[in-house]
Structures are given as structure tokens and as C-alpha cells.
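Give me C-alpha cells for this 403-residue protein.
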Amino acid sequence: MSIPERSESLPPPVFSTPAGPGPVRRGSRTHLPALLVFLGGLIILLVVPYLAQEISYAITRGEERAKYEAAREKLGELGEQVSRYRLAAKVIEPSVVGIDTVRVMGPALVDEWSFFPQQPRFESVGQGSGVIIDQEGHILTNAHVVSQASSVAVRLSDGRVFRNVQILGADPVSDLAVLKIHANNLIAAEWGNSDELEVGDEVLAVGNPYGLARSVTAGIISAKDRRVDVENAGFRDFLQTDAAVNPGNSGGPLVNMKGHVVGINTAIVGQSYRGISFAIPSRLAQRVFERLTTTGIARGWLGVQMQDLTPELASQFGLKESRGVIVTAVVPDSPAAKAGILPGDVVVAVGGQPVRDSEDLRLAIARTKIGAQADVTLHREGKELHVSVTIEQRPERVFAAPR
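Here you go.
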């Protein structure tokens, strides 16, 4: 009888881990695959964004390098280019002058018996700028630069200094003055048209800030017809620019890219440059210059007190738009009185040009020649009227009648 062979199960093989030769017990599992997956995912999360960013940088650098090489090659082909700033500055610089003034301040005090010592008067030194307008030696500057000056000196671009300077005339209302020197070989500036300027046009301001002769700064026209209160000027119709203007620039020219004078720098916001400066437009400056050098200043007037029309007042007067000026009082025997303008009338146009506010009306009358007829459009009690006003010269003192 044969005995069947009995098979015996063999024990499982014994493995050793890299950490040591110890046996692995039956039924235990390793965490190595999960750990590898975790580490791999962490590496992907950290490395992939970095690689993507570096790739992006590399692409940008490549594009910039390509642009750089192309631009460099193009510049090499074009050769040296002369900027318009440089040319405009060369055109205007010989016409810009420095102005030095001396004001005697504090009158001396004298007692009746000369018992007390006299109080000495002291001198105040000022600086400004100007621009040569013609070869006869007429120089345009700000009125406040030479106001109350006991002596005025003018420094030309070629180094000549003139101390026997005549103040030919000054108009404090527009803050403009004309000086006269006796000199030859002068280079006069050319007038530009401020009405042709547009916001964004490039301009240069040239002058002597802090005594730094013929400094040139660049900017653009930031605004036109800017209505701001300026200490030294009665009219408020300025060019606004961001060209740097500082103390000493007053009276210097603002020029376009042809080097033509489009304004006279006159004011800044604050005590030093803050990015905003104002210039008298050449439209006004040229007219005042011509009058100061010929007939003198004779200003026309209407003879009214006025108030700007607000939306609330426009509603009360039955007007659709809040543009215009309310006449609050009329000076007796004035041009307005003679034309029949009454308190309560609303002026909406002069010579067919709309009147937005009191500054518009004042400028429109000032621009009208003495003795000329001005067509004034009024609203009175819901009706539109047209009256013809003969503009007269403004008297020295004006007393308005009560409303």
C-alpha cells in the first residue's frame, strides 16, 4: 500500500529593507509608494509655477532683446536725430532776458527836532524774466516783476547788462509791463497764436528761475481758458501747463515747438512748482503790448454789477441752461444805462458769442474797442432782447447804484 506523499507548504521568503536586515513580519505593508506620490505632487506644486514663471520671463526677455536689437539697428541707420525741444530752445533763448530789480522799503522816520536817530530804509532785491519783442529794444514782462521798483537792470543772453532801463508802461489788470532798452543787434522773439493751441500740445517755459539764466523746461498745455484767481492779475483767462515754473520765471515766454511766444508765464500754485503753472495767452499779451507801446491802455466798460447764473437761479428766471450773467445793479449814466439794460436782466451773449459767466462778459467788453458798438443779448421776463451798447472808456472811479 503505497502512502501518498504529503506536501508541505514552504515558509515565505525573508526580505530585508534598505534600512536594515530585520525581517518583515507577515501581514505588514510598506508606505513607500504613498510617500513617493506625496513628494512628487509637492515637487510639482512648487516647481511647475516657478518653471512657468521663468519661462515667461525668458520669453519676455527674448522679445525685449529682439526689440532692442531692431531699435538699435534702426537708430544706427537713422543717425543722430535733433529733437524739436533743442531747436525750439535755440530759437527763443537769445530773446530771453533776466531782470533784476531793487525796491526801497520802509520810509524813513524823522522827528521834529532830530532827537531820535533816523530809521534807515532797506532795499529788497527781486528777480524776474522778460522777452525781447522787437529790435527797437522793447521787452515784455510781468507788471508785478517791476512794480514799485526803484531801479531795474536787464541782462541779455550775450552777457550785456543794461541798467538805464525805462519802464515804458504797465497794466496791473493783465499783469503785463513793457520795458525799453537802447541796444543794438537784438534778436526779437516771434508771436505765436495761443488760440490755435490744443490741450496736449508741447510747450517750453524759458526764464531765470532762482537766477539760473535761460533755464528751459518742457511740458504740455494742460488746459485753456483756465479761470483762477491770481494775486497779481485782474483778468482770469490763463493757459495752464505742467512745464516747471519757479520764482524768477515770471515774465518769461511760454513757446510752442516753433519757438514762437504763445504765452507769458505769470503764476504758479503755492510758493514753488507743484506741477501746475499759468501763462497769459499771447492773444491778450500781444494786444496789451501794442497798446502800451502806442496809445496806452484804455479799457472799455459796460457799467454793471453782475452775478454768475447758477442752476437754481436759472430755474427762477425760466432759463433752460445755467449759462449767463445776472445784472444786479447798473451804474447811472454808464453805457449799460444808456442802452436800457436793467437790474434783473440776464446777459447771455455779446457780439453773438455766448457768455458763460462774469469773466466771459468782462473779457468780451475789454476786447471791444472804445467807441465800438457791442450787440448784447439779454433775457428779460422770459423774452430774448438785443440791445446795442456803445462801449466807453472806463472812468478812474466807479460808484455803482444800489440794486
